[in-house]
Design brief:
five-stranded parallel beta sheet, DCK/DGK, 214 residues, Deoxyribonucleoside_kinase, alpha/beta, P-loop_NTPase, Deoxynucleoside kinase, Rossmann fold, transferase, 12% strand
């Protein structure tokens, strides 16, 4: 196995992408290959996720606040860690994609969306931003759905193509939002057909990441 080039400077890199794009796999691979501290997306122990998928209209606002609190906690911890860190899903996907999308679908009221952004602005004052963000692009929703079904999370069994297609619409412009609004450099990778878990796909992915983080 070829040895990867580890970035010399301390880095904070975050993964972004639609549900099922492969962020968790990539974050673990970066952590293992470069020795970065891993900050998983807080979904396994999320107390509202199952209820949210069963009734989005009732639980969308609650879930968004739960994710906001957990991600802010991650940023505070990352600021205190001396080694490089990798985060599974960015803080900015919730306000710029999920909150706006759920509002558009009628699952968040106007007042709830406004209140969410008030919480976001207050809780994120002065937090450390990622140095780099890697955005996974998977245009084909059938690929996303296949990966979701393969990983077998119980609460995601009812995931619909239309919901993922709508999210993809928001994700298409997300790299520009990160760069122009938040000043964060992005690397966009189409991973529709690339298996980053082993072999050549793994090596090519790590080479791209190493160059991006240098």
């Amino acid at each position: 196995m070829r040895r990867v080039r580890v970035p010399r400077a301390r880095r904070f890199v975050a993964l972004a992408g639609n549900i099922g794009a492969g962020k968790t796999t990539a974050a673990k691979l970066i952590s293992q290959s470069f020795g970065f501290e891993l900050f998983d997306e807080p979904v396994i122990d999320n107390r509202f996720l199952k209820d949210y998928y069963a009734n989005m209209g009732r639980w969308s606002f609650t879930l968004q606040l739960e994710f906001l609190i957990r991600r802010v906690e991650h940023h505070e911890l990352i600021h205190s860690v001396k080694k490089s860190c990798v985060q599974d899903r960015t803080l900015y996907e919730d306000p710029e994609i999920f909150a706006k999308y759920l509002h558009g679908l009628g699952h968040l009221t106007n007042a709830e969306l406004d209140l969410y952004f008030e919480y976001f602005q207050r809780l994120t004052r002065g937090i450390v931003q990622p140095d780099r963000v890697i955005c996974f692009d998977v245009p084909q929703v059938d690929v996303l759905l296949g990966r979701i079904l393969e990983r077998g999370r119980e609460e995601e069994k009812g995931m619909q193509k239309g919901f993922l297609r709508g999210l993809n619409g928001y994700y298409a412009g997300f790299p520009l939002v990160l760069q122009n609004k938040y000043g964060v450099d992005c690397l966009v990778l189409d991973v529709s057909t690339q298996d980053i878990r082993s072999g050549r796909g793994r090596e090519e992915f790590l080479d791209r990441v190493s160059s991006f983080l240098a």
